Amino acid sequence: MKRLALLVALAVISVACSDDSSSSNNRANNQNNQNNVNNQNNVNNQNNTNNLNNSNNGVDMGMPPTPAPFGLDDRPANPTCIAPDRPPPAERNFELTRRFSALNFSAPLWLEHAPGDTSRWYLMEQSGRIFAFDNDDNVTDTTEWADIRDRVACCGERGLLGMAFHPNWPMDERIFLSYTTNDNGTRSRVSEFTLAGDGTVDEGSERIIIDVGQPFDNHNGGQISF
Asked: Which of 144, 208, 152 is CA-nearest to residue 180?
């Protein structure tokens, strides 16, 4: 019995030692595998970096920017931090000449020709009227071409603020006006108008295109164009 117990004890010890040896071998194998993975990742990362650098070196990145014909290439020396003297103004050979001296208007904001026709001018007053007259310095007469004062809220930064002919004028005889109105508070409005039989704007033909409420009486719009 003592001999049998000794053999069993030796067998148990042998198995335990075998398990410890296997665990150590497994740990060593796992560490080796991890080291191999890390080494491979490092190699792949280095290869990717080299490939990216080689790719950039081989790609045409375009022409370098052309130096601008203005600005400073170097900061001028100025230890006093005092601005230099202003250079003398350049000589300008122009003068202002009044045209259409026989005509007078109230708060004119805009003046333009109809598309393709420079023989007449159209002048817009802030109060809501548009006048047409011949493109002649000696002109003495105007035609009231539009009058929407009954719906325009003026003045300050409000009023009839913009006009535009349809881009297909005169095949498409529509005119677009931008103005402010008092309709449940100040509103900015852009409307389309057509012409009456006498060639003036038909105020009753208005079709509102844009209508926006304004919280204040300033910054309410301006010129419109196509």
From this structure: 152
